[in-house]
Amino acid sequence: MIKTAILGGSGYTALELIKILLRHPEVKIEAVISRAEGTPLVAEQHPSLTGRLDLRCEQLNVDALVARGVQCAFGCLPHGVSMSTLPALLDRGIRIIDLSADYRLRDPNVYAQWYGESHHDLAHLTQAVYGLPEIYGEEIPTAQLIANPGCYPQTAILGLAPLVAGKHIDLKSIIVDSKSGVSGAGRTPKLTTHFPECNESFTAYSVGNHRHTPEIEQALGDIAGEPVEVIFTPHLVPMDRGIFSTIYATPVRPTSQEQLLELYRAYYAKAPFVRLFKDIPATKHSGGTNYLDLTVRVVRGKIVILAAEDNLVRGASGVAVQNFNRMYGFDEQTGLR
C-alpha cells in the first residue's frame, strides 16, 4: 500500500484525483494539503466526497509527511508555486507527480519566454521525466519527478505521434485546432469563465501564444528526432468538461484512410488508453474516463486527425494515476478501468 499526499486539494483536478485514488487498491491517501483557512474537512470543499473521505485539509509540513510514511505526492498546485514547493519534498525522498507546467519544458529559457518568469529549480528540472506514458513509458518507472502532461498537448502529441515518428508528414505545417470545456480554466473564478460570459458563446483565446505550444513541439520533436513546428489555437466551449482537437497535416506522399488507420493501430497496439475509432469520436464517449479517442481522415490530399478526451481525467488526474502505476510497477489500468 503506497501512502500518498495531494498538494493543493481545492481544485477540480484534485477532486478527480481523489475519486480515482479512493478506488485504487494499492493507495492510501494520507494527507490533503490546502491553503484553506483552518482545517476544514476535504468534503467541505468537495461535497461529492461526503462519506467517502474523512480527512481534513492541512498545511504543508514536509517533516510530518515523511514521519507518516508518505512515499509519493501529487502536485495539484498552480504554475510557479510547484517549483517553490516541491524541492523540499524531493530532497527528502518523496516521489512527485506534478500536474502543473513547471517541469514540462526542459529548457528554462523556453519556460521563461512562455511563462513570464525565471525557473528557479534548475536542479530538479534536469531530472524531470515528461509523463506521457505512451511515448516516455520506459523512463517513468525509475523517475523521482514526473511532469504530468497538459490536457491539450495530449490530444496533439498522441494524435500526431504515428505520423511524426515515421516522417509521414511535413513537420513544419501542422495545425492543431482545439476546443475545451470550461473546467479546463480551473476552479478559481474569472470573468471569462463567469456563466453569463461563456454560456451560449464560443471563442478562441491565446491565439499564437498559448503556453502549451512549446510543450507540444518539444514532445513531437523528441518523436521526430528533429524540430517540429505547430500552430496551436485553443477555443472555449460552453460545456463543463472535455477536449476535442482537429489536427491538420500535409502528407509527404499519397496515402489512404485505411493505410493511416492501420498505421495507428500498429503504433498504439500496446497502449490500453488510446482507442482508435473508425467513426468520429465525441467528448461524450471519453467523458469520465482515461481514454484518448482518435480517428483519422484523408481530405483533398490532407490528413485530418480527430481526437477527444476528458480534460480532467485523461487530461490531468487520470494520466497522473497511469504514471503512478508505472512508477510503482502496478498494472497500468489499476484504478482507471
Please specify the SSE layout and strand pairing.
Layout: E1 2-7, H1 12-22, E2 27-33, H2 42-45, E3 57-58, H3 62-67, E4 72-75, H4 82-90, E5 95-98, H5 108-115, H6 122-125, E6 129-130, H7 133-136, E7 145-147, H8 151-165, E8 174-180, H9 195-198, E9 203-204, H10 212-224, E10 230-236, E11 243-249, H11 257-267, E12 274-276, H12 283-286, E13 292-299, E14 302-309, H13 313-327
Parallel strand pairs: 1-2, 1-4, 2-3, 4-5, 5-7, 6-7, 8-10, 12-13
Antiparallel strand pairs: 8-11, 9-10, 11-14, 13-14
Helix pairs in contact: 1-13, 8-10
What does this molecule look like?
The protein has 337 residues and is an alpha/beta fold. It has 2 domains: 2-127, NAD(P)-binding Rossmann-like Domain (Rossmann fold, 3-Layer(aba) Sandwich), CATH 3.40.50.720; 151-311, Dihydrodipicolinate Reductase, domain 2 (2-Layer Sandwich), CATH 3.30.360. It has helices at residues 12-22, 42-45, 62-67, 82-90, 108-115, 122-125, 133-136, 151-165, 195-198, 212-224, 257-267, 283-286, 313-327; strands spanning 2-7, 27-33, 57-58, 72-75, 95-98, 129-130, 145-147, 174-180, 203-204, 230-236, 243-249, 274-276, 292-299, 302-309. Helix 4 links the parallel strand 4 (72-75) and strand 5 (95-98).
